[in-house]
Write a structure and sequence with these properties.
- This protein is mostly helical.
- It folds into two domains: about 45 residues, no CATH class; about 80 residues, no CATH class.
- The protein has six helices and two strands; from the N terminus they run ααβαβααα.
- The chain has a two-stranded parallel ribbon.
- β1, α3 and β2 form a beta-alpha-beta unit.
- It is globular and about 50 Å long.
- The chain starts with a helix and ends with a helix.
């Protein structure tokens, strides 16, 4: 999404105070692929994940953690989040079956609801 990234970076550079405070995380499977696609991205920290979901999760977790205030509740580690994600993915077909919906029919809103309910149940020790 080079165009969208360019718009974001331009707004951050030339926009008002609210735009200047924004930050972004740029992820790619290959650490240097962007050099052949986007000529003007120098100075951006590109996080490489090698196509591995656990590395994507860890990169996003670390980026979010770096922006937290010291008194905020710490975000679990990337390994824990990846394990929880794998458990949810394994349980999703059964959750869908209970609600008589196919996994491939889920809308974003459906999926977000399943995630939200699953996390609430996990926090209460239900799952």
């Amino acid at each position: 999404m080079p165009l969208e990234l360019g718009l974001f970076l331009g707004a951050r550079r030339f926009g008002g105070p609210g735009q200047r405070r924004k930050s972004c995380l740029v992820l790619d499977a290959d650490p240097f692929r962007y050099q052949g696609l986007v000529s003007d991205i120098a100075g951006q920290d590109i996080a490489s994940h090698g196509g591995e979901p656990a590395r994507v999760i860890a990169a996003v977790r670390n980026w979010l953690s770096d922006s937290q205030l010291p008194n905020e509740r710490p975000i679990p580690g990337g390994t824990d989040i990846a394990a929880r994600c794998a458990r949810f993915q394994a349980e999703l077909p059964a959750l869908c079956e209970e609600r008589r919906i196919q996994v491939d029919e889920l809308t974003f809103k459906d999926y977000a609801g399943f995630v939200s309910r699953w996390l609430a149940g996990e926090d209460e020790g239900i799952t």
